[in-house]
Amino acid sequence: MLPSPAVYHFPWEVNSEAMQEGESVRTFGRLVCYLPEESRATLSAQHASKEHHVIVRTLFVEPFNPIIGAQYIVLGETEHDQGVGVMIRARVLNCVDGVNVPLLQKAISEQRSFLEEKESKQGRPVKPADTT
After folding, report:
1. Cβ(20)–Cβ(81) under 8 Å?
2. What is the mean pLDDT of the segment spanning 87-92?
3. Helix residue ranges per DSSP H, the chain
4. pTM of the model
5. Within 10 A of 31 (CB to CB), how many other CB atoms are there?
6. Which DSSP symbol is given to 20?
7. pLDDT category, 4, cuts 50, 70, 90?
């Protein structure tokens, strides 16, 4: 059986306790750190006045040619690590430097609104896993 399609989450939503182990997720952020010996990268995003970090396990996407300071989109599954909290086990990690981040955030919000409206018209509960 195939896993459910990944849902876009904002970086500030990834570290919430509502994220379940193995949940497919997509997110984005600026690469601020890469530790090749640990196969671990850190993405960062600004929201309101706070800096949010997402830890990404890069084992499945190596060899990985990091560009520190560039924007990346990651697709993968969540996993819980005692020392870190929620991290993403990357299946895809693409550099999208030059992407208009406010426009990406607006597109994600619009997609969510559309899917919520579609589900409410059909009288079914909203299932974020339906998002592709």
Report:
1. no
2. 93
3. 11-14, 101-122
4. 0.81
5. 21
6. P
7. low
